[in-house]
Design brief:
Layout: H1 2-38, H2 43-46, H3 52-68, H4 75-100
Length: about 100
């Protein structure tokens, strides 16, 4: 009997982990998109990165890909999460410094 319960338990755990990863990915990607929407367009060229429209397309496309291909551990899901992470960890702090006036210029 125990051998029959193990595969059922495994699928439940895997299903819950996939859902948790999906929701976490969507939260990160939507947050990156909304943050990009609220930034000033002239700050993007000031920090030497892609224009605002390009970052909106990247973060919005990442969110759309995650919604369409519901598996966050797929290749496209991981690429979308990486794109949102690059925006949040690299571009967002530089934009914050540029808007606050603490940048290197």
């Amino acid at each position: 009997m125990a051998t029959v319960a193990a595969p059922i338990f495994y699928t439940y755990v895997l299903n819950y982990l996939d859902r948790a990863l999906l929701y976490a990915s969507l939260v990160i990607e939507v947050y990156a998109f909304v943050n990009c929407l609220t930034q000033r367009a002239d700050a993007f060229p000031a920090i030497g990165t892609l224009p605002k429209g390009a970052w909106l397309a990247i973060t919005g496309g990442a969110t759309l890909l995650t919604l369409l291909f519901v598996f966050p551990t797929s290749l496209l899901g991981l690429i979308g999460l990486a794109a949102a992470a690059v925006y949040l960890l690299d571009v967002r702090p530089a934009l914050r410094d540029a808007v606050d006036g603490h940048g290197p210029w």
